[in-house]
Design brief:
The chain is of the alpha+beta class. The chain folds into two domains: 249 residues, 2-Layer Sandwich (Beta Polymerase, domain 2), CATH 3.30.460; 62 residues, Methane Monooxygenase Hydroxylase, Chain G, domain 1 (Up-down Bundle), CATH 1.20.58. 59% of the residues lie in helices and 13% in strands. It has a seven-stranded mixed beta sheet, sandwiched between helices. Helix 4 packs across helix 5. The relative contact order is 0.09.
Length: 324
């Protein structure tokens, strides 16, 4: 993801959508008059930690937030800068999307510092856009662009989750019910895990629109509002998928209970029919003297006919009582 020094990517933006890729030397020599600087770091890198602590001239509380192991989505204003933390879905190989990646950001008019530990495809997309000359031109556009790209990646994951919920809803009527229970549980678990971070991220986005920052233009606030609305819709879609999975699971439990009741009903009928037969055969099978018909050759045949007649009588009685 990065060299041992922790530098993932750094660009000196030209204000026209493009930018020049720079290294540690240019980062250390940068001044606000050079233009907008974006530095993206892996906060576990020793050099990155040293730069943030000793050379970046950031407030200690800002540095601590950029290097924190764990963070919840939030937005906090410091003077004319913004400290924020967002979450993006984890689309790395062999990773669960709901295991969301945290992106910490310090933004001011002429400099942006972002940190993370794992690869975030939204940041990679942003780097590619800058190299093609289609990236952000100002700090406000950068903030809006990052938020928008995070939402785009989330949208695909949530749409896939909704499709799975719909497929399982239809499969309840056709497939083996026991195989669907872990799949439904997985959908509900994924939806809960995604919402766990997306709900506070919505609050952070709402606060971001109201912060009084000089370099955050009205156009940027409008776009951030659109991103906020999209995030709200995604959370509603997550709630709908979770509720849909819950209703499907209730239907599944109902079907399983109905199947079990039908089987128990059949077993009960069989047991009720053979209970008197078992009693009679057991009674006549005891090894004591005086068993009626023991000396009569046709006794066994007559007893069998009696048992058949008894079964017929039982069935008629069950039918009249509507037990069958």
């Amino acid at each position: 993801m990065a060299n041992n020094d922790g530098l993932i990517a750094a660009y000196l933006l030209d204000g026209k959508g493009g930018g020049q890729k720079v290294g540690w030397k240019e980062i250390r020599e940068w001044t606000p008059s050079d233009g907008l600087l974006w530095v993206h770091l892996n906060f576990e890198g020793p050099e990155a930690q040293r730069w943030i602590r000793e050379e970046s001239q950031l407030e200690d509380v800002v540095g601590d937030a950029l290097l924190a192991e764990e963070s919840r989505p939030r937005v906090t204003a410091f003077d004319d800068g913004l400290l924020s933390a967002f979450r993006g879905v984890n689309l790395n190989p062999e990773a669960d999307p709901e295991d969301m990646v945290s992106l910490r950001m310090w933004a001011e008019k002429n400099r942006i510092v972002t940190t993370c530990r794992r690869k975030l495809l939204s940041v990679a997309d942003l780097c590619s856009a800058i190299e093609k000359g289609k990236g952000p031109r100002t700090s406000g556009e950068f903030l809006e662009d990052v938020a928008d790209r995070l939402m785009v990646r989330m949208g695909g994951v949530i749409d896939e989750l909704e499709d799975k919920a719909a497929e399982l809803e239809e499969a309840v009527l056709t497939e083996e019910s026991h195989e669907l229970r872990p799949k439904l549980a997985a959908i509900r678990r994924d939806a809960i895990n995604l919402r766990r971070y997306m709900a506070p991220q919505r609050e952070a986005m709402a606060r971001l629109q109201s912060e009084k920052i000089s370099w955050l233009a009205e156009e940027d606030r409008v776009r951030l509002r659109e991103t906020y609305d999209r995030l709200t819709r995604y959370i509603e879609d997550l709630d709908a998928a979770r509720e849909r999975a819950a209703v499907t699971q209730e239907e599944l439990v109902s079907r399983l209970s109905e199947q079990m009741d039908n089987r128990m009903y059949v077993l009960s009928i069989v047991a009720a029919i053979f209970l008197p037969l078992g009693f009679l055969t057991g009674l006549l099978g005891i090894n004591v003297g005086g068993i009626p018909g023991s000396e009569y050759k046709a006794g066994f045949a007559i007893f069998c006919l009696f048992l058949v007649g008894l079964i017929i009588v039982q069935v008629i009685v069950f039918k009249k009582k509507k037990w069958m």
